[in-house]
Amino acid sequence: MLQIRNLTKVYDSGVVALDDVSFDIPDGQFLAVIGLSGSGKSTLLRCINRLIEPTSGQILWDGVDLVSLSPEEMRRMRRKIGMIFQHFNLVNRSRVLTNVLAGRLGYLNPAFSLINHFPKEDIQKAILQLERVGIADKANVRADELSGGQQQRVGIARALMQDPSILLADEPVASLDPVLAHSIMKYLELINQEDKVTVICSLHFLDLVHRYSDYVVALNQGKLVFEGGPKKINDAKFKEIYGKDAERVG
Amino acid sequence: MQEKKPNVWKSVTLGVAVLLGVLVYAYGAEVTRVNLSELQSERRQESLVRVLRAIFRPDLIEYDQVLEPRVAPIYVPCPAGGLPGDMSVSQDGSHITVTPACGAPGDVVHVQGFNFAPNVEGPLRFVPGSDPENPVALGQLIANTDAQGNFSMDFTLPNRESEDVQYIRVTMRQNEGLPYFTQNARDTWDRIVETVFMALLATTIGTILAIPISFTAARNLMRPVRSPIASIALNILGWAAGIYLAYQLTLWIGDFTRSYVTVLPLALASAVLIPIIANLAIRWAIPVEDEVNPPLALRVTRGAVIFAVIVLGIYAFYALAGAMSSLGPQLAARFSGVAFLGNFLFRMGQILTLLVPTIAALLGGGALGGMLARIGQQATERLPNGAVKTMNLVLGGLVGAVIFGLLGSAAEWLYQIGNPVSTLWIPAAVGAAGGVLLALLTQPKDTLPVGTALYFVIRTILNALRSIEALVMAIVFVIAVGIGPFAGMMALALHTVVSLAKLYSEQVESIADGPMEAVQATGANRLQTIIYAVVPQIIPPYIAYTLYRWDINVRMSTIIGFVGGGGIGFLLQQNINLLNYRGASTQMVAIAIVVATLDYISSVVRERYT
Q: Which pLDDT score, from 0 to 100, does residue B1 have?
């Protein structure tokens, strides 16, 4: 159980990205976070693994407040929180396999990173994860030689290397065309259902929200404006979330 | 009307700007003494033409020459009693004739040559005095034979009157045999090789040192580095103590083992066996998996094992250095053809002996500093606020005193004030007060932006050193290590470190943040993030800048010889000073070829690695 309590983030520039946001995420849920661009979705996700430091509030994970952890404790905690990104964030010049192995770094002694050493089990595991997302044949290809959909699958494999309990997905399909979007979302669904990983996914398209999520939270200018099942988002709710002038697409 | 007002203002501004521009350039022309009429003066043009012609005829190859001097007698002025009878010149073979055979100074006589080799040339001179082989000769004419081996030209008699017979002499020169390189060309080759390798060594050393420095001079890597006061203070104290202890320990090990490392078999055996033992020990002592809280006893044992490995390792380095130092000369003596390899081995051994304490000191500082910093961090996190505050006060005061005391000692060393109260105790007291004040003014568990502070310090040092030209640094190094290529190499290396560190760090600052964010999100620590997300991104620009720097270093090393830094510059300057422009031209050609070749190679390599 992940509990967000009164989470607020004010950037140095004075922008209030999150404004007193509270909600609960039970284990194993597929949560969709929706809202306009700039509504605070990315900030919310990054506050959970503290890539961005929250200004105030609590994030309780099974009773442990992530916000109050020391940097070193938080680093260890991050190992259990996988993350995938809109722009994939692969290291372009590295091999696919190296990119996937990077997901294992938190579990390894940093001294061995100096000589680029990974244990054999980890390499086998990386190949296994690549097989799972269907691109094992690309293991020794440079990451930037892959197509967008393939790169995102490498991103998923990297997150899976962490054996995560939570997977944060920051607009995972926003840079992909709609056909690929479904294939990526299906992997997330698989991870959610087979591995019982809690998935917190920010999304743009409502049909993806309806199709994949168990539960939806909506943000508007940093405020939580809606939470509930995806079926509850009717036209009135939609206008509330996206503003009066918004039109539904897809 | 309302719209026109700003337009007038605009015109006035523009007018003033133009006027200012004219003023600036007028003053510029005045202080740089632009003077084109000087260029047009005949004397300058003559010199320029002479120098340019010399430059386009580099002193590169020459032939052995056969000289064929021929003389004909002449009287200046005509003797009162008429020409003596016996004025004939042998008509066999090559010879010259002068008609008339006498004349007043300034008269023009006609000189003809016959039966020389076709198409050769040689100086035509008036030889004063009665010795036809007198090396002193007047005139600047060059005689050229035609296809038949004859020539004919007019010669103006100089103002050298004598009652005795004097001579007109032509010395035809003929190339013989195959061309060969001149001494100047061979010297140029030696020096250009020296130059290229000077640049290579300087670039290599510079690059190795610049890479770690560049990370500390990159704002995006340093800004997130924040630590609580106790951690910073313990880190600084740890560095100071670590450097001192490791240096002393290493020197002690060096002294203790001095007599053993000269025994070659023993030294070789140690240098081979110890790394194997160390490897096994390290494998046991440093676990692959990141363990959360290993038991204290295990930690202590591991620490002890690592310490033992380090002591053994230092001995192994000394043994290796000793082996190299004694093996090198033996090899050089036995295989004289590749003596430079033996010498290299010896030199590397010597350098290793010198470097081991320094490197050990730095590593010791880093290790102890890092360890104490972690203790400080954990203490700050775990202890209650009051205790942390007390700790901050004590440590802040202590570290402030140490820093300012060291600065004061440095000032004492530089200026030799000789008053410990003002150079040691007062600075220490001020530093302690500053540290205590800092601890008082901050909240106990606040973190300070130590990364940003370090970034600014390193940037400032880099900028200051970078602004000193390598040529000026070379003068300092010539004083430190004597005239020669070593001084030039050191100067170039130092300049390379500071300028590459800056260029590199700018590349680090411009990398994509995404991969760093992603690797950090997996739970990787700072070191791992740098190695897996930063390093792959900066390899192509680092290679490009390193090659570019090599290029610059080759060009710099061509002139560093001007101040005694070795390389081709020494020859170039010598030839210019001797007005030997053909010689200087050879060096310029050599520089041009080397620079162009390097430029080509680096462009090819750059293309391949990006």
A: 47
Inter-chain contact B519–A110, Cβ cutoff 8 Å? no
pLDDT at B258 (0 to 100) = 77
At A226, list the tokens.
Answer: 């809606």
8 Å CB contact between A231 and A215: no
CATH of residue B204's domain is: 1.10.3720.10
The segments of chain A whose pLDDT lies below 70 read 247-250
Interface of A to B at Cβ within 8 Å reads: 49, 51, 70, 72, 75-79, 81-83, 85, 87-94, 98, 102-114, 116-117, 119, 155, 158-159, 161-162, 168
Q: Give the tens place of pLDDT for each residue, B197-215.
A: 899 999 999 999 999 999 9
Rounded Cα gap, residues B599 and B47, in angstroms? 33
Do B173 and B192 lie in one domain? The reply is no
Do B87 and B196 fall within a single domain?
no
If asked whether residues A40 and A72 sit together in one domain, one would say yes
Q: Residue A53: which domain range? A: 2-80+164-242
**Cross-chain Cβ contact B521/A110 below 8 Å:** no
Contact A222, A40 (CB under 8 A): yes
- A182-187, long-range: CB < 8 A, 24+ apart: A182/A208, A183/A149, A184/A149, A184/A152, A184/A153, A184/A156, A185/A211, A185/A212, A187/A133, A187/A153, A187/A156
Give the three-class secondary structure for A26.
coil
Contact B539 A93 (CB under 8 A): yes
What pLDDT score does A48 carry? 93
Which residue from A49, A87, A113 is facing B528, i.e. has the nearest CB? Answer: A113
Looking at the structure, do residues B501 and B575 belong to the same domain, yes or no?
yes
pLDDT of residue B313: 86
pLDDT at B342 > cutoff 90: no
- Taking the C-alpha atoms of residue A31 and residue A1, their distance in angstroms, rounded to an integer, is 13
Specify the number of domains making up chain B. 2
| Residue B396 buriedness (CB in 10 A; 0-12 / 13-18 / 19+) | buried
Same domain, B576 and B595: yes
B244-280 residue pLDDT tens: 999 999 988 888 877 777 777 888 888 888 888 888 8
Cβ-defined contact of A110 to B527 (cutoff 8 Å) = yes
Same domain, B176 and B96: yes
Alpha-carbon distance of B124 to B168, in angstroms, equals 7
In a domain, A204, yes or no: yes
Backbone φ/ψ region at B283: left (φ over 0), alpha (ψ -120 to 50), beta? alpha
**Domain final residue, candidates A162, A191, A211:** A162
Query: How far B396 CA sits from the closest chain A CA (Å)?
Result: 22
Cis bond upstream, residue B100 (ω within 30):
yes
Rounded Cα distance, B192 and B197, in Å: 9
Given a contact cutoff of 8 angstroms between Cβ atoms, the answer to whether B502 and B559 are in contact is no
Residue B311 has pLDDT above 80, yes or no: yes
Q: What is the ipTM of this complex?
A: 0.92
Residue range of the domain that includes B543: 183-208+470-610
* Nearest-CA distance B463 → chain A (Å): 30
In a domain, B21, yes or no: no
CB proximity list for A28: less than 8 A, separation 6 or greater = A192, A196, A197, A198
Radius of gyration from C-alpha coordinates of chain B = 38
B171 shares a domain with B191:
no
- Residue B187 shares a structural domain with residue B175: no
**Closest partner CB to B527 (pick from A77, A88, A113):** A113
Q: Give the model's confidence band at B340: pLDDT under 50 very low, under 70 low, under 90 confident, else very high.
A: confident
Please judge whether A91 and B537 are an interchain contact, meaning their C-beta atoms are less than 8 angstroms apart: yes
In a domain, A247, yes or no: no
Smallest CA-to-CA distance from A34 within A217, A170, A166 is with A217
- Here the tokens at position B364 are 């010791």
| A67 and A177 share one domain | yes
